[in-house]
Amino acid sequence: MKNLNEKNNIILITLLLIFISIESNIAQNPCPTIPDLLDHGWGPAQGEHNNRDEFAVLRTTPFLIKVDKYPPIKSFPIIPIGGCSPNTFCYMSFDSEEGMNGSPINEILIHNNWHNVTTYSGEIGWSFEIFPPSGFDVGIPDFVLNFNGTLHSKSWGNIPGWSYNDFVRNVSPYSPNFSVSITGPSNLLTGSTGEYIADINGGSGEYYISWEIKQLPGGTTTVINHHDLSLLPHFSIYGNNYYWYDDEHKQVVNMGNNNVELKVTIMDVSNDDLITATKIINKSNFAEIQFINNINGARDYGQLVLDEDKINKINSGSFVPVFPNVNHTIRTDVLPAANRWRNYNYSLKHLDWTTTSSQYELNFSFNISPLTPKEYISFFDFTTSSVIKTKIEGFDNLGKIKIKDPWHYYEDPNSHNWYQSNEFIEYNAPLQLLNSSVGDYGGVFPNMDYTNPNKPHYSIEAPVSILVNNHIHPLYFQRWSDVSGLSIEHFNNSLSAVSFTIYPSQATAYLKGSLLTNNANTYDHNSQRKFIRSKVDGVYHSVYSSMGKIWYETKTGTGNWTLMNNGNPICSNEAKNPSIIDLDNDYVAICYQENSNGPDIKAVVYNYATNQIAHGPYSLISSYDSYSLDNPIAIEFYNGQLEHLSYLLFVYKAFSSSGGTGPEPGLVYGYYTYDHNSKELSLSCWDNIIGTDINFSNPTLASSELINWQGMPKFYLAYQEDNFTNGSSKIWYQVVNPIASLDISHAQSNQISLNSGYTKNYKPRIVTLPGTDAYARLTWVGERTTEYVDEKTEAITQVTEKRALFRGSSPTSPFWNFGSNVRGSVIQKTNNHQNYFIVWNQFDNLTKETNNTTLSTIKTINSDGQQVDVCNGQTSSDVYGMIFNNAQTPYSFDMTNNLQSYFSLSKVTGSGIICSGREGTITKDNTSYYYSVGDVMVNGENI
């Protein structure tokens, strides 16, 4: 039984039905209420409970009611006795759902469609239109009217936005007039059939119905159907019969070779009134076809277009003459969807053409024959909303999503004809498949099963590339995730069939981009090598952090970058600060800081030829510091191949004491041997770098190309020391000498930045060049604040300078400075040791370079970047830069042209800013005086 929620408008009526006889006795609620009437449909029938979609008319005295073309029928009496209401009530209710046992009348009142209703008793009557709502509209949609069309009760309460007038309209007096007319097609093809209805108005509700047909011209009249009243289905209630009609008021005509006259005779049994109606049906060379938009049961909404005749559009429900033996097309003109249908918050959309079978087409093709159906229905169904999202490098809704929608309708801009596409169409993410507003996508049909080969279905495809900073970056699909309300056939494929099941639904494509990251700080530590080139085969290698993991990519020659490890990160846990070094043919070592329960400084040996981790991860040295601390790891390799062994040194910073079992605060080294046969690393020794403490950071390493007198390599180390008291910083340099495979010795540390003229010296990078003994070249950022006095106004202005400094490791090496407002600088050499490049990035996002030829020519290699790294190469034409840009999400890396190529361009001047210069310092006690010679001008022009 339904629960009525309305407080003020609902009047529950207590009624009693004593006894009703059909063929057997039916037990009823002795005091039925209005919810009972609605819940059971026709009260005397044992209806199915909770069928909902009904309306009823109620009156205290008997009445007749007619709906649409169904004949008038009598109301049922409810005669209460003791304990209930003392009044007699008469009612009639109609069901809106097919197949409900509570509705014996062969006339279903489709919900969400306007129906004509007349009620009358004697000479008094009323006419109105009813729009039975559905559960989508008002939850529990039943309602009861009075005889005159006014509201009696409704079960949907006071729902905002809905009122009784939304479902009942055009109430006016009606004078019953006993009459009949025949509706149906006036023309039929020979061999075809047509259905005709006797539309009876007025009368007592008890009729004899007789059908006759006469062949024209001059043929005989034949009775083809005669229905006695006693044969009609009825209820007997207290000795009175209450009749209803199945198909007695309908007649099917089979068209022969002659025109015919169809006649119906109606006799009102109560008063012996006799009325007739005739209709001439012509044998025709065309057929009258009814074209219908069936939108949630409404068959009179909108128009249709036959043979793309957009001038003479067809009103839904109309009969149209159509010629046979000609190919025709029909489509609905309610396109692309019936948005906000009847002001609801959802859309309905053309699903298929319903004739003899479902045809999932917008433009339905047909050819008329005698066997052709006389009714073509463009069936509309409810859609649901869904959202398909992307997450690229952890950023939401970038790139483009594709959908293959069999019901995608589009208009040709030239012909203005409408078609449908079953191809993938691309949309900016997120793909909003909404169905609640005019102009939106129109939604998608739920439960289109992709496993059924006889039905079309939807498919979605994640983006395969994305344009960032004018460069196309390939995307690697990871998975479909955050899935709800839909079914995906292949979760691990970027392209998959999909079925939308419930509202709301969504799915997100997770993707990793080539040379893309969400870490804006991934290139902050220019002391690390993140971009290298293999010396043997010239393969490019790049490592970086993104989405909390370490990613590794390679590139061969002019090919594209490839995300290694099958598109997966090379670490299992959260990690950052990677660095990379070339080990051997097809092998590299990648070192990184990992967030794990044990040691968090790790390395792997990677075979890039087979695209898999060969060995590791190795736990290099136990770290007892928090992962939240930033700990870049410098790594360097000496390819000595002495007895198949080479040597690897890495240095990182320990922030806290390990309690005697590990490193102390300061810089820590680990010395490893690499076996060229097994491709494995083995720890030889580790310890703190002598003379360093918590104030030291940013280590950078290089190795000698010569062995020392003991047959072991030399490593060259530079690092930064911060004085947090006065805000100054220094750059130190020393040689690290391995002693056999057991230990290393430290040469005297030199303050390479001494007398640089800059208060702060930070972010060093180092390379070595061979000689009688290898020596180093270093670059770093120098920063100082200088006061300038205006000679005229004597105003003092403070200017902070940030330059890329360069110096050799020899105590007599001069200082060079480059650029303006520099973020960071790097230095890289060629494999043949003939050239090196100094490259820096400025806060104006310019990336500039110079080389060792003159150290005076400055070139701009990129105008849009925040950091830079440079790979090695066999010659100066094989050295490339990797520019990191975090101005746009996702952040991107872009490889430059070879650095030597920029020097073939015309000379670039400084535009009033010193681009390069020589500086000198004079130091006495604790005070340094410096001079700077910048760009030189002759005759007003820079030279």
Descriptive account of the structure:
The chain has 943 residues and is an all-beta fold. Strands 30, 31, 36, 38, 39 and 42 form a 6-stranded mixed sheet that branches. Strand 56 (696-707) and strand 57 form a beta hairpin. Mean pLDDT is 84; it is low at 1-31, 40-52 and 907-915.
**Poorly predicted parts:** 1-31, 40-52, 907-915
So how many helices?
Answer: 2
Give the mean pLDDT: 84
Distance between the termini: 98 Å
Shape: elongated
Which class do the helix and strand fractions yield? Answer: mainly beta
Biggest sheet statistics? 6 strands, mixed
Percent in helix? under 10%
- The total beta strand count reads 75
What percent of residues are in strands?
Answer: over 45%
Please compute the radius of gyration using only Cα atoms. 45 Å
Topology of this protein?
Layout: H1 34-39, E1 54-59, E2 64-67, E3 73-74, E4 76-78, E5 89-95, E6 115-121, E7 124-130, H2 135-138, E8 143-146, E9 151-154, E10 168-173, E11 179-183, E12 187-188, E13 193-201, E14 207-216, E15 221-227, E16 234-237, E17 240-243, E18 250-254, E19 259-268, E20 273-283, E21 287-295, E22 303-306, E23 314-315, E24 318-322, E25 327-332, E26 348-354, E27 358-359, E28 364-367, E29 375-382, E30 386-392, E31 395-396, E32 400-404, E33 408-411, E34 418-421, E35 424-428, E36 431-433, E37 458-461, E38 465-468, E39 471-484, E40 486-488, E41 495-500, E42 505-513, E43 516-517, E44 531-533, E45 540-546, E46 549-555, E47 562-563, E48 574-584, E49 587-595, E50 601-607, E51 612-619, E52 634-642, E53 645-654, E54 666-675, E55 681-688, E56 696-707, E57 713-723, E58 728-739, E59 743-746, E60 750-751, E61 760-769, E62 775-789, E63 796-808, E64 815-818, E65 822-829, E66 836-842, E67 847-851, E68 859-862, E69 867-870, E70 880-885, E71 891-898, E72 916-924, E73 927-933, E74 937-938, E75 941-942
Parallel strand pairs: 1-8, 12-20, 21-29, 30-42
Antiparallel strand pairs: 1-5, 2-3, 2-6, 4-5, 6-7, 7-10, 8-9, 11-13, 13-18, 14-15, 14-19, 16-17, 19-20, 21-24, 22-23, 22-25, 25-28, 26-27, 26-29, 30-31, 30-36, 32-35, 32-37, 33-34, 37-41, 38-39, 39-42, 40-41, 43-71, 44-45, 45-46, 46-47, 48-49, 49-50, 50-51, 52-53, 53-54, 54-55, 56-57, 57-58, ...
